[in-house]
Amino acid sequence: MDNLTPRDSEYGLEKAASESKPILDQSAGSFFKQLLGFWVTFVTQFKKVNTVEYPEVKEPTAERFHGRHQLNRHPDGLEKCIGCELCAWACPADAIYVEGGDNTPDAQYSPGERYGKVYQINYLRCVFCGLCIEACPTRALTMTNEYELADDSRRKLIFEKEDLLAPLRQGMLMPPHPMYPDSTDTSYYKGEVTGSHPSQESNPHV
Amino acid sequence: MSTEITTDVEMITVVIDGFDVTVPKGTLVIRAAEKLGIQIPRFCDHPLLSPAGACRQCLVDIEINGRAFPKPQASCTIPVENGMIVKTQLTSEVADKAQKGIMELLLINHPLDCPVCDKGGECPLQNQAMSNGREVSRYEGVKRTYEKPTAISSQVLLDRERCVLCARCTRFSEEIAGDPFITLNERGALQQVGIYEKDPFRSYFSGNTVQICPVGALTGASYRFRSRPFDLVSTPSACEHCASGCAMRTDVRRGKTLRRLAGEDAEVNEEWNCDKGRWAFKYISSKERVTTPMVRGADGELHEASWPEALARAAAGLKGKRAGVLVGGRSTIEDSYAYAKFARIALNTNDIDFRARLHSDEEAAFLASIAAQITTTYRDLDKADHVVLVDFEPEDESPIVFLRLYKQVRKRGLKVSTVAPLASRGSQKLGATVLSSLTGLTLTEKSVILVGERAAETIGRFTAVASLASSSGAKVAWIPRRAGEFGALVAGALGNLLPGGRPVSDAAARVDIQTAWGVDALPVKEGKATWEILEAATDGRINAVVVGGVDPLDISAEALGQLLDTSTFVLSLEIAHSAITAIADVVLPVAAVSEKSGSFLNWEGRPRFFEKAITDSLTRSDTRILSALADEMGSPINLPSAKAVARELQAIGKWDGARASAPVVAPLSLPTPDGDHAILNSWRELLDLGTLQAGEENLAGTARPVEAVISAARAARLGVTTGDAITISTGRGSITLPARIGEIEESAIWLPRNSAGSQCIANLGAASGLVVKVAKA
What pLDDT, on a 0 to 100 scale, did the predictor assign at position A4? Predict the structure, then answer.
């Protein structure tokens, strides 16, 4: 044996082998000890059940459970996301891919100059840590409580912007459409825009 | 490159934060601190621009011989002196407080829109606000806002509220580029960067202002909102657009080039580049890219084919034929060498020429005798007493040479003369004397003659250059327009030269190369020039042509027809579909510059290496394809990679034997046109219809207006003023352009050679020296 290979003694294996003893006690006293073990099982039959019959029965998650993401909208329907990529920057798992784009007078998706043209979250990578939510400067990205994300292909687990955008609620219009009349991006952030205006419906792209 | 050691400079020792540092007299305090590794925050300070003291961020406490300045001083404007003691923010509370105060003041009107700002993540203001600013803002008022963004040009956008008024952009455009189209308007709180109302910001160097802006006030329209610095994988690269040889940085996100920046190389481009180099890269992602090999079928159409099938077809088409090779001037030296070796070994011919443009036999002789051994460098321009430009327009044809000359013109009034028909904007900026010929010029050994590729268009010009250089001892440099031409010359992609500048006619030179390549014999007969190859293709003396990246309209109006009319086999190696691929029998797709590694030689002969920027690209370089093709033909050239070529070129080395003799061609006197006619002159402007500028509309928007330049006398005779349309016609066709009255020879007219609405070769059939009819439109 060369000097470089560690010997069994160095791992403590020899010592362990010399000290270990086989279990030899098979006497009657040990039978009652084994029965005692079944007592726990027996008693549990009469206790209240903690589990639910998922998926037939579903229980609400904790209020702040980290589930699937959502891209929120302003009250008039414009997207809150400005494509700044801070979520992608914060992501420890490199699960988010964003490309920014220019809002033009013909196609306004978010207040101001910039919007998120491409927005993808890869749920194969996401660890639901929520750092992206903390990084988002416009509260565009939040997390829902939805946790049923399993699917049968890798492709389907890369969520696109359409999959992540929040549904249109009462009073919202589908972008692209112009900003609220006489408003700036600041008025949106200050919460001064509370719904859509009839003039915003004149959308050249719908 | 030798670094000059000058000992006659007085050295001064100062104390900065308790440490001694010895620097040459005249060094600024901020630089001396850098030498110690002490970083003083700054915005307006830039090592290549004159000090401005505009932002006041670099305040430090200074004491000279025991007498302290009463208030902190801007370290970017004060040169070191003996007995000076400097205390920066690290040791002086006063300096630290002053810097924090300045930062707070700068941030009062600076918006907090970092999430939408392109500079976010690589912003000196962001970084220094973190390192040298207060933790929290005390400002509660309303920030100043402007309408945004303002387009300074189609390519540069300005967000005025982000500006910290450092004046880097205005100083750059005035001091470095010589285009003072932007300035600081208004004063006090209303001060802002603006353009002169009558002169739009039409500078070839405008992109540098975006790069040196220390905040996100100036942004490039093409990169706006495209990505963040952390998305980008940066690769040092070299520019493929001209022979200046700029160091570059290519930023790629997921296989797509998003931007290119000027790299730093003090010997070449310093920290600058031109807008073409910066922004013309969309051709790589063009829809016209050839993506698979294509073979022309029996139906006369091109069909997609597998590599083995296409290579087999190409090999069958070339084998045993009398072939010629046309290499565009855009190839890297490795690719040019592969073409040169392929021609000699696989095709057994010297019929190879890299000059896909107007050329002459006199030029070939000049290249073989003089250009192949040029050692002139940018440093020689810095030291020259007189620079003579011969058929060379540096601002359009090699912009960094222009910047170098302009620097010396500004610094020490360098004398510049230009042999040109007119005083262009570039020569006006250089204060150049316009000459009609080289006769009567007296030069010294410190003078430099820069001769451009257009000298081939004037018979006898190269002869005059060669004789002037030998009689005066002045240095010569040959500055072609394209990046690959100098490399192609050294690689032997020319009919009369083998690699390393070895003359084909010299038996010893041939033996050198035979040994290196391990072949028994090399073709002895000197090869044909591009025009001869094309002519030979029409009468069957050549019945196969290999074309690598050539636009036939660069050579002549007939070139395409000459290849089309015959049963010549045409193999095209191209990145995008072109006039040649439309007639080729086999088309093989090749890698663009960012998809391969290699090097260019700039006009100094300095290698400009670059690595593959788009690492997951599957395209292959010309070298690899030619090597595979040669294998298929049974005469291998053994060049599997650019590295293999570099090794071979290294082993071959330069020719130290006898050179060919300099050309002796008598000049031809030009015809004297009558009043209705003029002699045509043209050159390609930097921004025009060049193939590599395709797909970048923002860049095209900053091109100069397309105008025909005529003399005042001719304008009076035609009854036109600046702006009126005139028609220039030949038997082949005509061009109608607005006229501009300029300082041009009475008998001449100047047009842009390849701009929108003015494509001289296609429309007039010639690009220079031709007598054309000029009339009011």
Answer: 63
ipTM of the complex as predicted: 0.83
Q: What is the structure's pLDDT at B563?
A: 87
Secondary structure of residue B249 in the 3-state scheme: strand
| CA triple B47-B51-B57, angle to 5 deg | 90
Answer yes or no: is pLDDT of A206 > 50. Answer: no
The partner residues of B758 in beta bridges, in order of sequence, read B755
pLDDT at B2: 44
Give chain B's mean pLDDT.
92
Would you say B244 and B603 are in contact if contact means Cβ atoms under 8 Å apart?
A: yes
Find the CB nearest B225 among A88, A101, A138: A101
What whole-number distance in Å separates Cα of residue B58 and Cα of residue B29?
Answer: 10
Give me B693's structure tokens: 């500028």
Q: For an interface test with A, give the residue of B158, B223, B225 to mutate (most A CBs within 10 A).
A: B225
- The answer to whether A131 and A91 are in contact (CB under 8 A) is yes
Are B68 and B61 within 8 A, CB to CB?
A: yes
Indicate the pTM of the whole model. 0.91
Comparing CB atoms, the residue among B148, B149, B228 nearest residue A85 is B228
**Cα separation of B405 and B166, whole Å?**
26
On chain B, the residues whose CB falls within 8 A of the CB of A86 are 115
For chain B positions 93-152, those within 8 Å of chain A (CB to CB) are 115-116, 120-121, 148-149
Beta strands in B522-568 (DSSP E): 544-548
Smallest Cβ–Cβ distance between A84 and the set B116, B224, B230 belongs to B116
Backbone angles phi, psi at B682, to 5 degrees: -165, 160
Across B422-487, where does the E strand assignment appear? Answer: 433-435, 448-452, 475-479
The amino acid at B148: K
Quote the pLDDT of residue A26: 61
Q: Do A102 and B225 touch (CB under 8 A)?
A: yes
Residues of A in contact with B148 (CB under 8 A): 113
Contacts of B121 in chain A (CB under 8 A): 89
Nearest to A66, CA basis, from A121, A118, A137: A121
- The list of chain B residues with pLDDT below 50 reads 1-3
**Token pair of A66 as six digits:** 């980290």
